[in-house]
Amino acid sequence: MQRLRITPVVFRPEHSGCLNTVPRSPPDFSRCPELQEFLDAVSAKTISLAYASENLMSPSSFMGHTFIKLSENETDPGHAVSFFTEVDGFNLPKIMFDSLVVGKEGYFIVSPYQESLNFYKDIEGRNVFEYQLDISEKTKQLIQLHLWELKETRIDYFFHNQNCASISLNLLAIANPELMKHRRDWLSPLDVIQLASQHHMIQQTSITPSTGWKLRAYGANQQDSTKQSLLDQLSKGDLQTRFNGTDVPAEEQFLTWEFTQAMNQYLLDNGSITPESYSENNRRLAGYETYFSSYAVDLSEFKNPIKRNKDAQWQIGTRWSTEGDQALTTTWLPASHTLADDNRNAFSESSLALMKISVSVSEHTFKLDNFTLYGIQSYLPCDPFFGGLSGHFSVQWDRGTDFTERDNQRFFIAGGLGLSHQVNNAVNIFATFGTELSMNTEKAWGAFAIDMGLFSYLRHDIKMAFLANTVWNQYASSDFKHKASVSMTYLGLENSAVDLGVQYADMTGLSEGQFNVVYRHFY
After folding, report:
1. List of E strands, 247-383
2. Are 312 and 523 in contact (CB under 8 A)?
3. How confident is the model at residue 193 (pLDDT cuts 50, 70, 90)?
4. pLDDT tens, residue by residue, 339-371
5. Pair 99, 159: CB distance under 8 Å
């Protein structure tokens, strides 16, 4: 366990080398009392870029959220400056159409930062990263004044080019106009924090983890017997475990103490203990604060979103089948990521595909293989004490490339739920059971599916994936289709990856193997 690293802040005066300059008097806004009231109430002496990690279960949050934090100093709760829209219901085609074509009503608000922090951390279970910006005092005031200018401005929300990320980038560009050259469609919250890092605008980083994340991270090294003992004690409001004076190293006891605090909060949030029991547990835990005052968990490099792949990619590759079919394949994913990507700096193995298009070109044909309006897969390891489901959901059109001699075109909606288990830091396995509702120009039908898989990170930046799938009635034929694949991805290239894959499919006398080589570029 590392101690908290303290990095000295170097202050750079705006006027260096000038001995006889006359300081300018600060601007006078007394003629505009409303503006002056805003400036007095919303201090901008410290400005940070905040990033709330993705929530894959919420359509409005599945790519994360970025906003600006203004405060008097590092200890001041400050204010959040955020741009967002409301997403109601689960009609994904309508949500996507409104967000991409019509536009939705956007809300640009300044609110107490603590309210935003509590909402993302406690209600939605998302980690919140704060990146304090290294910008001049003059620039801070310009940003503050520009926020005042925007207060009466109507800004329609468009998912791809007028979202929380693009508005945040506009504000950061006041400090560094070079950022505007990155102002493009499909800008994501992850893009913004990576661009701020790339342009050396980040002075220091801090993270406020959610209770759920603390339980998983701090509890990873706890024995099940220890977890059960702590759970029994906390549930009764009678914590007896000692966190000092034992043979266990102090660093490990510190993690157990942190884990116990998270568990106490979890039990209160879920109504498993009374507020009185929570307070008594908290009182006993607080007795160790002095003992552990010299310890802190260093999260600055752990699961750092800045190190993740960029949130858009294109792919080009080749596909060979045992039936003699050969094709050049291309895919464009304008927003988010795949299961083949490097997810070591994410909190689970997951994929998110928005408006993904895949096409193939053979000797005499050009075909649309797949169009995914919305597709999600999340394999969060299940904890025996705190649960956690895995699952997938997608809305897509597919040509059916498993058997090249058949025409299996269909539009379908698929979903499934299951469990995932993290064997160790490098291996994750999962299994889900799901259904599909398909239709073509002639009929509609249903199907049932079982999916299983394993992900493993090996040495030298290599990721392996083993996936197996069995579906009944996928093509309205009352047959079982079995498919298995193995893929190996090299992740050691900058903003790129190379995939090698082998696939075998079998269905009532039909069988076919395929071999794929794919180059992927992230941008």
Report:
1. 313-321, 326-333, 349-361, 366-379
2. yes
3. very high
4. 999 999 988 899 999 899 999 999 888 999 999
5. yes
- Give dist(CA 404, CA 322) in Å, integer: 10
CA pair distance 231, 241, nearest whole angstrom:
11
Q: Which two tokens stand for residue 129?
A: 């990263």
Q: How far apart, in whole angstroms, are the C-alpha atoms of residue 153 and residue 21?
A: 39
Q: What 8-state DSSP symbol labels residue 27?
A: P
Q: Give the CA angle between residues 88, 91, 92 to the nearest 5°.
A: 100
Look up tokens 């090249």; give the residue: 404
pLDDT at 1: 38
Residue 378: its pLDDT value, please?
93
Distance CA 440, CA 64 (A): 35
State the Cα–Cα distance between residues 450 and 432, nearest whole angstrom.
Answer: 6
Distance between CA atoms of residues 510 and 512, nearest Å: 7
393: Cα separation from own chain's centroid:
17
CB atoms within 10 A of CB 174: 16
* Residue linked to tokens 């509590």: 118
Query: What are the E-state strand segments in 142-199?
Result: 156-157
